[in-house]
Amino acid sequence: MRIESAEVIVTSPGRNFVTLRLTTEDGVTGLGDATLNGRELAVQSYLDDHVVPLILGGDASRIEDTWQYLYRGAYWRRGPVTMAAIAAVDTALWDIKAKSAGMPLYQLLGGASRSGAMAYGHASGRDVPELLDSVRKHLELGYRAIRVQSGIPGLDSVYGVAASGAEGGERYDYEPARRATVGGRLRPTVETWDTRAYLRHVPSVFEAVRAEFGPELPLLHDGHHRMTPIQAAQLGKALEPYDLFWLEDATPAEDQAALRLIRQHTTTPLAIGEVFNSVYDYTTLLSERLIDYVRSAVTHTGGVTAMKKLLDLADVHGVKSGMHGPTDISPVGMAAALHLDLAIHNFGIQEYMQHSERTLEVFRTSFRFEDGLLHPSDTPGLGVELDTEAARHFPYEPAYLPVNRLRDGTMHDW
Ligand code: GCO
Ligand code: MG
């Protein structure tokens, strides 16, 4: 089954997406998500200029070999751009194989291990009353687990908190990247951060949420890499009374060993890895059981093949999945995650920020969100198609994630 054609489709229905479509000589198509928020065109070029020419005419059935060819053959290994490009090819080949077999992808991955994948949504508020309303709204939407992010007194804006109300109800769900201009030039927006103010405030937020919604509701929180290890340990400890499902990205985790310090001080479960792009980013974290959930997405970690291997390694060490699922993971990437979520043994939870209606004009999905659970559907393949004509109506618009500076102007993590 030869790969006859490949198209890299960049479209911006509500936010930028990069999608690879492969078509075989007998007309079977497969899709792969290659979206890298704020750096989309780098992946488009990596695919168009350095990958597509090497796979055209190749055997679409050789998924593992194609993965190894693109990973080892490039000489330059890993990195978000490379692994997003490899992910798109790999996912598209799995889509083709499952369609050709006449079955949904999860059946090829071992069949269903559960009835559905528990999802969590993003509640946020600039203050506690707004946050509590957002939690209520997400419960009404059917979520059974909720990420809680809050404004911080003294800080104008905090990443992850919907700019609702004053900004006309703009939902954070839609898109964390922004188009902003400074002096007429496109620039990332700049947010000001104060970790001590954050650490003083967050426990009171969870005190209020628990008081309102009780002890049962699984609550998650994202630290967005902003704390030092000892600050993360301090927060993890302070949040223990509120029994979080997880504290995510508590500290920048290129320094995997830093998680040892956090682990020594707190039993709050830890989730890490949405910015990782290979299993090698996790080796210490997994072998020493320094985390409880793997946050990587299929889209950023080399595809279904690589993600399955990573999650199997995690399972050996008692670590579960918690795949990244914001709106900058396209419906194609989300569908790929859901097939893995349904099939693997060590499923934990699936992040699910619902894509906008505009996005769904371009991506025709078949996965379902019912009663707090996601199901990829039994459509053969991934179960997503891309409407090329509709995609043309939404040209690429450069947009960047915000950058984060301390009050004195020092660049900070986020
Ligand atoms: C999450 C992430 C998002 C990211 C965004 C970056 O947990 O969903 O932290 O908030 O910031 O996906 O592209
Ligand atoms: Mg996150």
UniProtKB/TrEMBL annotation:
A Pfam family found in this protein is MR_MLE_N
Q: Which GO terms describe its biological process?
A: amino acid catabolic process; carbohydrate catabolic process
Please, which domain of life does this record's source organism belong to?
A: Bacteria
What terms describe the molecular function in GO for this protein? magnesium ion binding; mannonate dehydratase activity
**Where does the Mandelate racemase/muconate lactonizing enzyme C-terminal domain start and stop, copy by copy?**
128-269
The regions listed as transmembrane in this protein's record are none
- Matching InterPro entries: D-mannonate_dehydratase-like (IPR034589), DgoD-like (IPR034593), Enolase-like_C_sf (IPR036849), Enolase-like_N (IPR029017), Enolase_C-like (IPR029065), Mandel_Rmase/mucon_lact_enz_CS (IPR018110), Mandelate_racemase_C (IPR013342), Mandelate_racemase_N_dom (IPR013341)
Q: What is this protein called?
A: Starvation-sensing protein RspA
Originating species: Streptomyces aurantiogriseus
Q: What is the lineage of its organism?
A: Bacteria, Bacillati, Actinomycetota, Actinomycetes, Kitasatosporales
